[in-house]
Amino acid sequence: MTVKQMILGMELGNLSGTQPDSWRAPGVDPVEYLDYDTRIRYAQAAERGKLQFLFFPNGPYHEVKDFEHYGPDMTPDVMIHMAILARATDRIGFVASASTTYNHPYSLAQQLKTVDYISHGRAAWNAVASGYPDVAANYGSEVLSGEDRYGRARESIELVQSLWASWGREAWVHDQETGEYTRPGEVAPVSFEGKYVNSRGPLYIPPSEQGQPVIVQSGLGDNSFALAGRYADLAVGLASSIEEAGACRETIRRYAAEAGRDPDEVKYVAGFSPTIGPTKREALDRRASLVASRLPQWLPQLGELLGVPLSMADLDRVLQPSEFGALRAPNPDAPGWIQARSIRAHALASEGWSVRDILAQGVFAEHPTKVGTATEAADHMQEWFESGAIDGFWLCIDVYRDGIDAFVDQVIPILQDRGLFHRDYEGTTLREHLGARDQYGPDYRVAQTAKPQPVLTHLAGRP
């Protein structure tokens, strides 16, 4: 009997790490943002840890408005980024985020399949139905309605997959003796006609070792979950608790079943933001230094959660239970992450941590945080994984320079010794790493949203 093991990925696309002041950390060179020798070293470290994939976020816009003090959050160019790192690694996969709203499917199909081919089948597309006003402004556009954004996303995915299969899987003969380059009719137009996107095709790129790139979805909310259930092999989630992660996973699985797919085909990974130190105290001091510039912003927010006015003068003070009182009943209409912040703030205050240490332990972090030793990080991951709520994690490392090595050299061996993570890659492609179903072209189990493509009937019934 095969024991289920974690899928592990890592975000690698922003500045020097995922914490606000990572670019100011000791030993970090701020210009490494565009230093690809450094990025290659980080990718190779993740591959040494046998991680299944690297995740490249891409808005494309700047999330932090204070550009004078914080560097860019997003990948400079995801396709170039992916291509460079693919040629410097052998096994690890790559998930490139690219908008279905502001890119034409033909260009996406061409770029993604090219990288998939040159990487020998290690590419994936995180199909993003962009909806932020700042993104729209960069393209001189207005924000589309949810119906239009997700309608275009569905058609874009189906068109991209149709274009990937427009070069038949067995088409390439390239027989120099007979002069036959491809089999007749195996490279043909797709003549895709949708409400939002159209293309004649074909795309002149043969299949990679995994056939075509894997589809990933990373959005939140019902529309995104429906998109993931309908098309994705991997859902990259954001959940503040095991219960929330389980609910997200079950929603996606329900949508997969409704679309005609096997729910087990969609893997769900949750975000995790560790800071590793030899001791709890050293890890706390490290994390506190990486969020120092945000403390003036977070202190009043923490005070609201605890019901205690807080200022910078209170940073090293341990609050007494009589000051912050009992946790108020959660507002059932409030988002889960707000409730989770309040619960965590009260729990940490009750444990007797100083205000600075409470903030260092990720009360306002985007993802669940563990600040402590490698064993504490592994314990967190084991608890979440064995709950059945997730299939693994995507890691948000605090400072890439030394944080990746700390995780790979200290946490990974613990997970491996506990039988929770593999010791080596079992295959060569990302599809194999994820245990994803073999697929070439659209998934014809799922009802297509646009005009049928008769030229692809030779693929009907194939996986």
Structure notes:
The protein has 463 residues and is of the alpha/beta class. The protein has two domains: 7-275 and 375-434, Alpha-Beta Barrel (TIM Barrel), CATH 3.20.20.30; 280-369, no CATH class. The chain is built from 15 helices and 13 strands. The protein has helices at residues 36-48, 78-86, 105-118, 133-138, 146-164, 222-231, 242-259, 280-290, 295-306, 321-324, 336-350, 355-360, 374-386, 400-417, 430-434, and strands at 7-11, 53-56, 93-99, 123-128, 172-175, 180-182, 192-193, 198-199, 214-217, 234-237, 267-276, 369-372, 392-395. Helix 6 crosses helix 7 (242-259). It is globular and about 85 Å long.
Order of helices and strands: EHEHEHEHHEEEEEHEHEHHHHHEHEHH
- Report strand order across the widest sheet: 1-2-3-4-9-10-11-13
CATH arch. level architecture of the largest domain: Alpha-Beta Barrel
Name the shape in a single word.
globular
- Number of strand elements: 13
Can you tell me the CATH class of the largest domain?
A: Alpha Beta
What is the typical, i.e. mean, pLDDT? Answer: 91
CATH superfamily of the largest domain: Luciferase-like domain
**CA distance, first residue to last residue:** 26 Å
The CATH topology label of the largest domain is TIM Barrel
Poorly predicted tracts of residues: none
Strand pairing plus helix content: what structural class?
A: alpha/beta
Largest sheet: 8 strands, parallel, barrel
Output the radius of gyration: 23 Å
- The level of helicity is 25-40%
Number of helices: 15
InterPro entries: Diverse_substr_monoxygenases, Luciferase-like_dom, Luciferase-like_sf, NTA_MOA
Keywords: Flavoprotein, FMN, Monooxygenase, Oxidoreductase
Pfam family, one: Bac_luciferase
Family: Belongs to the NtaA/SnaA/DszA monooxygenase family.
